[in-house]
């Protein structure tokens, strides 16, 4: 089904992951070789037939704008609506700075107001998942909910893992009874995906009301305080999802793409994930290449050994180099005899002959863009 | 109206009958090449890099896939407000309506398309050659000499010269004689089928040619000789570099192998001259535990769990555990099962080779799949064909789809 009655709003995340978010918004982080994190939510929306999407940005949005441009890869360069990158409008914010997602929403209130759709999918831009949003909106409508919160059941996860999320206390029929934002002692395993479905009119009134009172958080100030008076329901997403909020989760989720089940779930051929194309030639394997259990993008030249790695486009690995358990972003060059284990390289990192860099599984070594060692 | 200095016309109507089952359902320019491209990506990308933004693609034989592939021209940056890519099939008009009779007639039938851009020059290209060339340089030379036509030529080995259209030129490069497949060539400069005409001359000669009932309406056979005979200034433009007509199964296979030679005989990885193609929106390729890939290219959407040696693997191909692929070209979406052995084979799109099959590994005297088009022991599996489990397909076979 094509949800032409629904618009999408993506709030780019403020979770910083130094050094790889030094130069870009979290949502613009390269992931799974050829993608950016935001490609997942954008493609999900586009696949549901949503043709009006606003991406609210904070600072550091040039990388995001460069990635999205006209929205062509998502088929969102439209005459009516389309894909809009919305830089922060500080004047519209209560205190002139962004301190919470209500500020971001207030900053784009004109965009929301002039959009002609009935429903809104509001999502943070730092999670990866592949979900049928058309079906989710249909569920929201049929269920006569005021707000539908998408969640993932993390049964069996450690408390520290659960504490990264907003947890939902669920009653009968998945009605949300309470929400706790990143509690130290989690009482539930239902982790919010930070994806909300609601009517546009309701969103506008929430933003207006919160803004007028100086409230700044969509969950803490709006949803939790209004829990009694609104029908807030949760909808479970059974497929894979996680948010990228730390280097550890970035590393873990990236490595997850080496798992066949996760690839199958996130790269569902019925709902493709689109991204900006770079028109690079296929990857070349040399005479001495040894590659195992790795996820490799186009445009690479591999002459050395690559085991358990994620390579972005245009990476060069010279003869005799050994790269293990690592994430190497676009156009990085690894010279002969280099030994790498558990590293995360941003774009255009250059490692000269014979160097050795070793990180740990629990603490991968991250190197910022353009570094030459 | 804004005039265009140069408009390109790509002749993409050819069947490419010597490619056998590969061109049963698609025109030759739409045949996959080089891991993620189609043959027509090469002239299209050359146009864009040469600053030519208006390209007519003349289709006739099996145009559906080619039309869909070109679409609005966006992958080549040819979706323009004025100009861009246009697919031009033959059409009916008030007076006439007929198939393209020959290369010259195809352009003649689209004179009104050209008129719309009021061009000074027209670049005529063929949609079935693999090469990288800066047409802008050729256009510059064409303007400097003030020729009525400039023809790209390249030196070929003398022993092969009699297979080509040969240009005999003087010391300035001016063409003095043109011989189609001469028995005793006087020169080894072969025409590459790339012409730049001054538009006025082109229009005049095409119109005259159309009214000549004895003409085959072909550039090589009719237009070029006629212009030479009439003393028009015709100049050669010398090209040195890789150029290949992938007209046969063997030459298509060989041109793919040229990409993975060390160093490559033809380099497509130069990002200043990227070859553009329509993207299939597939994830990066996954190389499994126990896989081994050497001297090969692999692209997006593949899952490789077996051995790949000296082969070109297109998008979305799966190769199962225990299988080995050598000296082969596997086109998009093909599925190779487990413990399969494949040698020197061209596998068409979405073909399936089931577990334990052997393809191209042995010679066999009485081979029911034998085909005269599969020379040099090459095997061709048609797109969508299925080789059943444990089957044996000998060298020189052509397997067609049900």
CATH architecture level-2 label of the largest domain in chain A: Alpha-Beta Complex
Percent of residues in beta strands of chain A: 25-35%
Largest sheet of chain A: 9 strands, mixed
Number of helices of chain A: 10
Please state the average pLDDT score of chain B. 93
**Percent range of helical residues of chain B:** 10-25%
Structural class of chain A: alpha/beta
Give the helix proportion of chain A (percent range).
10-25%
Main pleated sheet of chain B: 7 strands, mixed
Low-confidence stretches of chain A: none
How many β-strands of chain B, per DSSP? 31
Using the CA coordinates, give the radius of gyration of chain B: 22 Å
Mean pLDDT over the residues of chain A = 92
As a whole number of angstroms, the C-alpha radius of gyration of chain A is 21 Å
If you consult CATH, what is the topology of the largest domain in chain A?
Answer: Spore Coat Polysaccharide Biosynthesis Protein SpsA, Chain A
Integer tally of domains of chain A: 2
Largest interface, counted by CB within 8 Å of the partner chain's CB: A-B, 38 and 38 residues
Distance between the termini of chain A: 52 Å
Morphology of chain B: globular
Q: CATH homologous superfamily of the largest domain in chain A, by name?
A: Spore Coat Polysaccharide Biosynthesis Protein SpsA, Chain A
Overview of this protein structure:
By secondary structure, chain A is α/β, with parallel strands linked by helices. Chain A is built from ten helices and 28 strands. In chain A, helix 3 packs across helix 7. Chain A starts with 5 loop residues before the first strand and ends in a 6-residue tail after the last strand. Chain B is an alpha/beta fold and about 400 residues long. Chain B has helices spanning about 40-50, 65-70, 105-110, 110-115, 135-145, 200-210, 220-230, 250-260; strands at about 5-10, 30-35, 35-40, 55-60, 85-90, 120-125, 130, 150-155, 165-170, 175-180, 190-200, 235-240, 245, 285, 290-295, 295-300, 305, 305-310, 310-315, 320, 325, 330, 335, 340-345, 345, 350-355, 360, 380, 385, 390-395, 400. A seven-stranded mixed sheet of chain B has the order 5-4-1-6-11-8-12. Chain B has a six-stranded parallel sheet with strand order 14-17-20-23-26-29, with no helix packed on it. A six-stranded parallel sheet of chain B has the order 15-18-21-24-27-30, with no helix packed on it. In chain B, a hairpin with a 3-residue loop joins strand 2 and strand 3. The longest helix of chain B is centred in the middle third of the chain and has 12 residues, at about 200-210. Classes of the chains: A alpha/beta (about 375), B alpha/beta (about 400). The interface between A and B is large, with 38 and 38 residues. Strand 14 (about 285) of chain A pairs antiparallel with strand 16 of chain B.
């Amino acid at each position: 089904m094509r949800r032409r009655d629904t618009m999408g709003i993506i709030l780019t995340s403020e979770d910083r992951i130094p050094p790889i978010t030094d130069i870009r918004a979290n949502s613009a982080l390269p992931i799974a070789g050829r993608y950016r994190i935001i490609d997942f939510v954008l493609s999900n929306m586009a696949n549901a037939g949503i043709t009006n999407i606003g991406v609210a940005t904070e600072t550091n949005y040039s990388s995001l704008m460069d990635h999205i441009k006209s929205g062509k890869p998502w088929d969102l360069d439209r005459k009516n609506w389309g894909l809009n990158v919305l830089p922060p409008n500080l004047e519209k914010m209560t205190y002139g700075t962004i301190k919470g997602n209500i500020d971001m929403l207030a900053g784009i209130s004109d965009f929301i107001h002039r959009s002609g759709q009935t429903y809104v999918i509001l999502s943070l831009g730092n999670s990866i998942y592949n979900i049928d949003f058309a079906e989710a909106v249909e569920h929201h409508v049929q269920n006569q909910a005021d707000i539908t919160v998408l969640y993932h059941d993390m049964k069996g996860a450690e408390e520290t893992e659960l504490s990264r999320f907003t947890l939902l206390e669920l009653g009968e029929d998945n009605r949300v009874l309470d929400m706790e934002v990143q509690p130290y002692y989690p009482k539930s395993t239902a982790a919010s995906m930070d994806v909300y479905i609601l009517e546009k009119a309701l969103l506008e009134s929430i933003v207006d009301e919160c803004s007028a009172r100086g409230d700044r958080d969509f969950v803490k100030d709006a949803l939790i305080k209004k829990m009694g008076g609104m029908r807030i329901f949760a909808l479970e997403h059974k497929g894979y999802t996680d948010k990228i909020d730390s280097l550890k989760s970035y590393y873990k989720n990236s490595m997850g793409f080496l798992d066949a089940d996760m690839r199958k779930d996130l790269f569902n051929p019925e709902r493709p994930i689109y991204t900006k194309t770079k028109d690079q030639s296929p990857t070349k394997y040399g005479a001495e290449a040894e590659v195992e259990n790795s996820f490799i993008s186009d445009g690479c030249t591999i002459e050395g050994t690559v085991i358990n790695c994620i390579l972005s486009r245009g990476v060069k690995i010279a003869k005799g180099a050994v790269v293990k358990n690592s994430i190497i972003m676009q156009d990085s060059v690894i010279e002969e005899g280099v030994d790498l284990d558990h590293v995360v390289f941003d774009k255009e990192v250059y490692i000269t002959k014979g160097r050795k860099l070793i990180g740990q599984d629990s603490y991968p070594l991250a190197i910022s863009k353009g570094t030459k060692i | 109206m804004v005039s265009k200095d140069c408009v390109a016309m790509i002749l993409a109507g050819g069947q490419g009958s010597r490619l056998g089952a590969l061109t049963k359902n698609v025109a030759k320019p739409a045949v996959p090449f080089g891991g993620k491209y189609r043959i027509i990506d090469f002239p299209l990308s050359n146009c864009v890099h040469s600053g030519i933004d208006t390209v007519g693609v003349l289709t006739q034989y099996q145009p559906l896939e080619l039309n869909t592939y070109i679409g609005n021209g966006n992958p080549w940056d040819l979706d323009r407000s004025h100009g861009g890519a246009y697919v031009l099939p033959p059409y009916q008009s008030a007076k006439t309506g007929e198939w393209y009779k020959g290369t010259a007639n195809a352009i003649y039938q689209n004179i009104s398309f050209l008129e719309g851009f009021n061009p000074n020059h027209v670049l005529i290209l063929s949609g079935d050659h693999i090469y990288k060339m800066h047409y802008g340089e050729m256009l510059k030379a064409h303007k400097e000499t003030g020729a009525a036509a400039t023809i790209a030529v390249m030196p070929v080995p003398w022993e092969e010269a009699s297979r080509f259209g040969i240009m005999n030129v003087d010391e300035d490069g001016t063409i003095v004689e043109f011989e189609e497949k001469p028995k005793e060539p006087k020169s080894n400069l072969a025409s590459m089928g790339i012409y730049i005409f001054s538009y006025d001359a082109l229009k005049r000669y095409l119109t005259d040619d159309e009214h000549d009932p004895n003409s085959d309406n072909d550039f090589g056979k009719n237009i070029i000789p006629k212009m030479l005979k009439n003393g028009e200034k015709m100049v050669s433009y010398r090209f040195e570099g890789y150029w290949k007509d992938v007209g046969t199964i063997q030459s298509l296979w060989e041109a793919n192998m040229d990409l993975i030679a060390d160093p490559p005989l033809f380099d497509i990885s130069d990002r200043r001259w990227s070859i553009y193609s329509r993207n299939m929106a597939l994830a990066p390729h996954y190389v499994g535990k126990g896989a081994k890939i050497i001297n090969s290219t692999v692209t997006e959407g593949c899952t490789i769990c077996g051995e790949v040696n000296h082969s070109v693997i297109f998008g979305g191909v799966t190769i199962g555990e225990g299988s080995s692929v050598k000296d082969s070209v596997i086109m998009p979406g093909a599925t190779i099962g487990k413990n399969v052995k494949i040698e020197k084979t061209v596998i068409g799109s979405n073909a399936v080779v089931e577990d334990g099959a052997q393809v191209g590994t042995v010679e066999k005297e009485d081979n029911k799949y034998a085909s005269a088009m599969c020379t040099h022991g090459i095997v061709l599996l048609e797109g969508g064909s299925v080789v059943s489990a444990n089957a044996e397909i000998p060298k020189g076979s052509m397997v067609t789809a049900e």
